[in-house]
Amino acid sequence: MSEEILMNVTPMECRIALLENGVIQEVYIERTRSRGIVGNIYIGKITRVLPGMQSAFIDIGFERTAFIHANEIFQNTADEEKVINTPIQELIHEGQSLVVQVIKDPISSKGALLSTNISIPARYLVFMPNTKHIGISLKIEDLEERNRLKTLISDYIATEEDSNQNNGFIVRTAAEGISAEEIQKDIIFLRRLWKSIEENIKGVTSVPANVYEELPLELRVLRDFYNSKIERIRVDSLKSFNKLTNFATKLAPGVEKRITLHQGDQPIFDLFGVEDEIAKALNKKVPLKSGGYLIIEQTEAMTTIDVNTGAFVGSRNLEETIYKTNLEATVAISRQLRLRNLGGIIVIDFIDMDNKEHQSQVLKILDKMLTNDPVKTFTSQISELGLVEMTRKRTRESLQNMLCEPCKFCEGRGKIKTAETICYEIFREILRSAKAYNANKYMVLGSESVIDRLLDEESNTVADLEDIVNKPIKFQVEPIYHQEQFDVIPL
Fold it and tell me: What is the second-level CATH architecture of the domain 3-35+214-275?
């Protein structure tokens, strides 16, 4: 599988697309005015401790207070049971200052999620200043290589003058097969970086304060996602190209050769069809090649995915048609989860299959497709109602929430009331107004579609209403009114 990274960088925002075999799989967007804060380190002030929830709210300088759970508050003890069972009010108190790191961006109405277990990533290692633990990525499966890396770090730390430093490391997947010299460079770099952060912490004069800011998106992607499968990184900004090549030269020499500057007349996202894919990812309907389709409904509580055969009629029998549609849907679903960055509870309504072997195969293929997803997922078996329940870890805002907002007319319902419904609401409002006011006549202001209906299909009803209230009713079109908006004015 060949992979490619496209970077569209402007002063307003940075957009990054990950392509696999020429097909867009993931999109990352970071806007200059609202950069993500995951990885940032702050000195925050505890504003409220919640013993019943084993958690607390912390002011880190944003409009919404951040949140921390007792499990994320570092305790210098090897007794894991003691850590879990310690009441939060014995760990922290209101008004206390605390060094914290953001582990999840604010999402929807929720504030950022925090931890005191600081971790700072580099190319091959993640530095953890509050522990002596040395861990190895589970994706490095070779036992001999795992032992080599662990021994390499342990031996290097043991030879240092200050071998009692309370520092730990996690070896990243990218470190597999990397020389001791490169690993040691990472250790030195991370130690220096942490020392500068400690100096920033000591120099803080008022709380809350930001003492460390994560890299911008394009550099984070290069650091965290680059691997041997990625054949090319294309960027359309000369300034970012220079920044990336300099960063790559220091972080991973040789990688800079794969970074190219896009200078064509056509915008890079247009050239590779990314703009079209982003636009499609905001639609509810996802067409399948066979003629079937998915309907993806995203709500705050969960996301539902409905699979339909649509125009696909198959060539053999109904069961085979359903089976093939469901198999095709598993591929599309796994891609849409990544492209739209859907998280939380996800319910998939596959077309009902009577054949148990077909059910098993559909689930097997779905699980196989989800192995390519870098975000942790869990999938259940098909329930008695024919539904597959799954969870996908929320790491950042979904594409829809990032690019869209609820419609001010329908307020997120996705539908508006019909003109007929609004007409009947107007009639009821006139009757209420007749009891409350001694008016000479009534003026109704509304949208063109509603007024047209009142003067046409509902004209007999209007005449009957005038007899009931014994007052004339006049109508006026307001061009700026949307269909649900109206005013009844007693004159």
Answer: 2-Layer Sandwich (3.30)
